[in-house]
Design brief:
The relative contact order is 0.18. The protein contains 3 helices and 8 strands. The protein is of the alpha/beta class.
Length: 142
């Protein structure tokens, strides 16, 4: 019985420390999609915005029911198989997406039709009240 209580306490402690809501995830994703350094890469060959922004699904983002928009359209979360079947394979791929109660770390790349990423970004964010703010941003064209 004591062991069960200890396990319950530790799981509860970890859950509270690393709590995140879908709204937190949506807010952080929206911030990532809006960083100025990324915007030139989200333009098509004719200079107009991409018709659809795809995000490669990962375990860190619970995308079921998550609504994030870019260019007036909902961002579409796709798995590896769906991505390979698309004619436009431009997508964002998250490698780190850690959201705690008031801090977050994000690492992602943007790739177009080529297999090599064209853009990389790393962000650290802090939550002030209900608003997430970037405290550190590193990015580079690849």
């Amino acid at each position: 019985m004591k062991r069960h209580l200890l396990v319950f306490f530790l799981v509860s402690l970890v859950t509270v420390g690393y709590s995140q809501t879908q709204q937190d995830q949506a807010d952080i994703l929206q911030i990532c999609f809006e960083i100025p350094e990324l915007q030139p890469f989200l333009m098509g060959a004719n200079g107009s915005p991409l018709a659809q922004l795809y995000v490669k699904s990962c375990n860190s983002i619970q995308d079921y029911g998550l609504t994030v928009n870019k260019f007036g359209n909902p961002v579409r979360f796709v798995d590896k198989v769906e991505l390979s079947a698309l004619s436009d394979k431009s997508h964002i791929d998250f490698f780190i997406f850690e959201v705690m109660a008031d801090k977050a770390r994000v690492d992602f790349t943007f790739s177009s039709d080529s297999s090599e990423p064209k853009f990389w970004a790393y962000l650290e964010l802090e939550k002030n009240g209900t608003t997430w703010e970037i405290t550190q941003l590193k990015s580079e064209e690849r």
